[in-house]
Specification:
The protein is mainly β. The protein is built from 9 helices and 64 strands. The protein is globular and about 125 Å long.
Length: 982
């Protein structure tokens, strides 16, 4: 018996040791994360292709990104994301070693190391006169200490040392209303020319000493016909403009102090045009491009100062700037959209009828039209000139074309996300293998052959990479069906280009993408842009065989009274099921808590005339809405006027079949001389609250005030609505309100003296957390307010509370004056905050964490217990057992609490949390220029085993234990028998 007991103990020891070894892999960083880097829509590109070394292209984007990309693969060598207000105006490469950027309207000039992107110097340029931003950089390759960079901004021309960024001199040029449009610095000359307009009827030429900034000459030439404002410079001493009627081309020549004008009617060049045109902002040598009617017209400027018609193309074409190659030759790229293909032509300036290359490339129609093209040349092995083209598509994607093929592409439209929603994946059908659905027979056989080669150690490095890719694709987290834990979903995002992407939560890959027709530029919708994504149909139960769908709402213009558009998109395939518009304007969109028999969610869209429109437009939806009419309320915020308003639908006020008139219920007016609305926040409509009761340490029960009609409002002193530090502490204050949006009743109000915005806030259950700046303490603060319903305080029957039968007979209504009590506390916080959200779980049982997007573009998870207003310096033993943390003046920043680990979500804009089916887990997606996804378990994974748990080892251990028990039982029986025979 002793021997068998030892055997049993040894087996138990080894099995427990094995589990401890496996537990080392439980919280591996990056196991369920993915991170994607983008740059946004490219607006400037400069190639750097030396004979030896890395070949790259330096780009700047509309997301204020300057980056260096590998020209062979499109990967990012280095990248910098500037501030939201620091837009890049110009970018160029100087002396083959510096990247020069001019930004913030010509106020900031920076030099970056071309190799690694480190900032070499930064200069702040003075000047407060609004003007264009211009940059002039020497074209030579070797840097000299006397070399200068010329930058124009703020109405001043600056000369900056290329070595240390020191401003050597500056000259004001815009004092007399001169709009400087171009800088000319002839190679090897100590003179720089600034060219522009005075008003709309005068051409100005400034001649300035480049060494000391002395004004050598200011020539002025009036033009009786007036200028339209467009201008192009086809040569260093020649400009082309349009007169005020846009029907006459004006050739302007300036040299040796002489300015001359020569006019040519557009109809004399192109007889079949309307005679009215606009100059395109292209930089072509000896040629200009004009847009007339629906065409692009190319006009050549001869050496004799004459205009010659070259060609006329469809306006869907894109043209590049001129490129010098093989000495003094000039060429440019021309791309025409031909259905599913694009045609790339590189034409020499000297001979329009010929083409250096002409290629046709198949293009995905979901990328739209080509919007920009940048041309670069290289030397082939036979010493001839080859060309590559970098193109920017309508969906903001970036592609490199070379030798008739797409060398690489980048989906940089994902760097400008407007809105995000999620969708469940389809259910895996019983008896159908996922592998058969997702892979063809050939791919299935190919995968097994690769695995066999890997087993026999015959696989090449490329085979091993393919095997690893197959393993990732076949892993459970990357399947295209939903899992029982709810980890696998589709993240559907809408970009600024009007394109929808569906990303898989497993690895972030693009499942499908679609460029919505309703959000593309057209004759009826000149300036389309997306507004929001909403769940349109989420099938359940009897309609589970239908695919879910997404509602996409947009607007044809930037004003609130611009016409609206909408599309319905299949969430599984990306197919645009239907679209409508332009129609009435879209001012507000409210999802209603009702669905029809087909599981379509009802929406109320408010236009700029305060009319309410019901969607979907069906008799069933109308009947449901009319039945619940008296329970439909919404609010509006007029931040400029400082007014909150509550609204409802007028009874019997049908404007048409699905449109209604509205009425104002209440209004709250904030005094304009003392308060300005800066932030409003409400609860998520789909948030789940596990329990309305909270048991205190003294066994008292407090009921949370849980209302979906609660609105958080933050106002500041009008003087304090600017940047931090723009006012003194005595001139600044912050008011916080909790308002019921049905009645307009102010439930709570608090004032923070010497405080200033911006205010970031999140409202969840019965509490709100908000972040602001304390001017007197010179630190950021975070405050928490918890609100409780005192009117239910008498109902403290714990048995009823456990059974869920408490207070069932007492109706809860916003019209009954609530007796509320609040608890609040404020803490210092180290970081500035860009965004703030809260974790969300399926049943609301798991403890909450705040997801804080810091100024460093990282996401921090902060336990809500640190923002408990009941924290005290010396908590009692009962409070400690409840989990209340001792009070400190600052909130702790624990390095291990960074959700993004050491990674950054550059340009962070938003954070969303989506509950998984597993109660302990929430899915977190943060987006900006980058994307980051992870899974969080705020209370640890108390309801599941880890994914690397060894079920085989568990089975072996159980079998071993059963065998040991059986052996022990036999030995015990034998021992008992032997003792009985004694």
């Amino acid at each position: 018996m002793a021997i068998s007991s030892r055997v049993l103990l040894l087996l138990l020891f080894f099995s427990s040791s094995a589990f401890l070894t496996l537990s080392l892999y439980e919280d591996q960083v990056g196991l369920m994360d993915w991170h994607q880097q983008y740059i946004g829509k490219v607006k400037h590109a400069v190639f750097h292709t030396p004979k030896t070394g890395r070949k790259r292209v330096v780009v700047s984007t509309e997301e204020n990104v300057v980056a260096s990309l590998d020209l062979r693969r499109g990967e990012i060598y280095w990248r910098h994301v500037l501030g939201a207000t620091d837009a890049i105006d110009e970018v160029d490469i100087a002396f083959g070693k510096f990247v020069i950027t001019l930004s913030s309207g010509g106020k900031t000039l920076r030099a970056w190391n071309l190799a690694d992107g480190q900032m070499v110097w930064e200069s702040v340029l003075s000047g407060s006169i609004p003007s264009r931003s211009l940059l002039s950089i020497p074209t030579k390759l070797k840097v000299n200490k006397d070399d200068l960079i010329f930058a124009y901004g703020g109405g001043h021309l600056h000369a900056i040392s290329c070595l240390d960024g020191e401003v050597l001199w500056r000259k004001e040029l815009a004092s007399d209303g001169v709009d400087v449009r171009h800088l000319v610095h002839p190679h090897g000359s100590n003179v720089i020319y600034a060219l522009g307009f005075s008003g709309f009827s005068q051409f100005d030429v400034f001649k300035i000493n480049a060494d000391n900034g002395e004004l050598l000459m200011h020539d002025v030439a009036p033009f009786s016909g007036g200028f339209s404002g467009d201008i192009s410079f086809p040569a260093h001493d020649t400009a082309v403009a349009l007169d005020s009627t846009r029907s006459v081309l004006v050739l302007i020549r300036f040299s040796d102090g002489q300015i001359s004008f020569q006019q040519t009617r557009l109809l004399d060049l192109v007889s079949d045009s309307s005679g009215v045109a606009a100059l395109l902002p292209s930089k072509l040598m000896e040629m200009v491009a004009l847009k007339a009617d629906s065409s692009i017209i190319f006009v050549k400027v001869t050496n004799e100062g004459q205009f010659e018609f070259a060609d006329k193309l469809d306006d869907a074409a894109a043209i590049s700037d001129s490129l010098s190659f093989s000495g003094a030759q000039q060429a440019f790229a021309l791309i025409e959209n031909k259905g599913s293909k694009i045609e790339l032509s590189v034409k020499p300036i000297s001979d329009w009828s010929s083409s250096l290359i002409k290629e046709s490339i198949e293009m995905d129609p979901q990328r739209g039209l080509v919007k920009k093209v940048f041309l670069n040349n290289y030397i082939r092995t036979d010493k001839s000139s080859g060309f590559r083209a970098l193109i920017v598509m309508e969906d903001h994607s970036l592609l490199l074309l070379q030798q008739g093929e797409i060398v690489w592409n980048r989906e940089d439209g994902l760097g400008s996300i407007v809105d995000v929603t999620t969708s469940e994946l389809p259910v895996e059908k019983v008896g159908v293998s996922v592998a058969k659905v997702e892979h063809s027979l050939f791919e299935w056989l190919k995968g097994h052959m690769l695995k066999l080669k890997g087993t026999l150690m015959l696989a090449t490095p490329d085979d091993m990479a393919a095997i690893q890719k197959l393993r990732l694709q076949s892993s459970g987290k990357n399947k295209m069906t939903r899992d029982h834990n709810g980890f696998r979903k589709l993240i559907i995002v809408l970009t600024r280009a009007g394109k929808l992407f569906a990303l898989h939560t497993g690895d972030g890959r693009i499942v499908w993408s679609v460029l919505l027709n309703s959000l593309r530029k057209s004759e009826t919708c000149e300036v389309p842009h997306g507004l929001t994504l909403q769940q349109w149909q989420v099938p359940h139960h009897h309609v589970l065989d239908k695919n879910p769908s997404i509602l996409v709402l947009g607007r044809c213009g930037h004003s609130l009274d611009s016409p609206g558009v909408y599309s319905i998109v299949d969430a599984y395939t990306g197919k645009e099921l239907s679209s409508l518009g332009p129609f009435h304007s879209i001012s507000q969109v409210f999802p209603l808590p009702y669905t029809d028999s087909s599981e379509h969610r009802l929406y109320l869209v408010i236009d700029s005339d305060s009319h309410a429109h019901l969607y979907p437009r069906s008799p069933e939806a109308l009947a449901i809405f009319q039945r619940e009419l008296e329970n439909v309320f919404w609010y509006s915020v007029e931040a400029d006027n400082g007014i909150l308003r509550g609204h409802a639908v007028k009874e019997n006020s049908i404007l048409d079949e699905y449109s209604f008139d509205t009425r104002d219920l209440w209004s709250v007016v904030f005094p304009s001389e003392s308060e300005k609305i800066i932030t409003t926040v409400t609860r998520k409509l789909n948030e789940v609250v596990h329990t309305q009761a909270k048991v205190m340490t003294d066994q008292d029960v407090m009921y949370k005030y849980i209302s979906k009609n609660l609105l958080f409002v933050a106002t500041v002193a009008p003087k304090a609505s600017g940047e931090i530090g723009s006012v003194t502490p005595e001139e600044s204050w912050l008011f916080v309100y909790l308002v019921d949006t049905v009645t307009g009743r102010v439930l709570h109000r608090v004032k923070h003296y010497a405080s200033q915005g911006p205010v970031r806030a999140v409202l969840s259950e019965n509490w709100v957390v908000y972040h602001y700046f304390n001017l007197r303490a010179h630190r950021y603060e975070m405050s928490v307010i918890e609100i409780y319903d005192q009117s239910r305080a008498d109902n403290k029957d714990v048995l009823k509370l456990v059974l869920g039968k408490h207070n069932l007979t007492s109706p809860v209504s916003s019209y009954s004056r609530p007796e509320v009590v609040t608890k609040s506390q404020s803490y210092f916080f180290t970081h500035s905050v860009k965004a703030i959200a809260v974790t969300s779980t399926a049943k609301g049982i798991t403890s909450k964490q705040l997801l804080i997007g810091t100024i460093g573009d990282q996401v921090l998870a902060l336990d809500k217990r640190f923002l408990d207003p009941r924290r005290t310096l010396n908590p009692t033993q009962a409070e400690k057992e409840e989990g209340i943390i001792p009070l400190t003046d600052s909130l702790p920043i624990i390095p291990q609490s960074y959700v993004t680990h050491a990674l950054k979500v550059e340009g962070l804009k938003g954070i969303i949390a989506v509950p998984a089916k597993l109660e302990s887990t929430t899915l977190v997606f943060s987006y900006g220029v980058d994307l980051f996804f992870t899974r969080l378990a705020p209370s640890k994974t108390y309801d599941s085993l880890t994914e690397d748990f060894s079920y085989a080892l568990l089975l072996i251990t159980i079998v071993a234990l059963v065998a040991a028990i059986f052996v022990t039982w036999i030995l015990s029986q034998k021992k008992d028998l032997q003792e009985k025979w004694r």
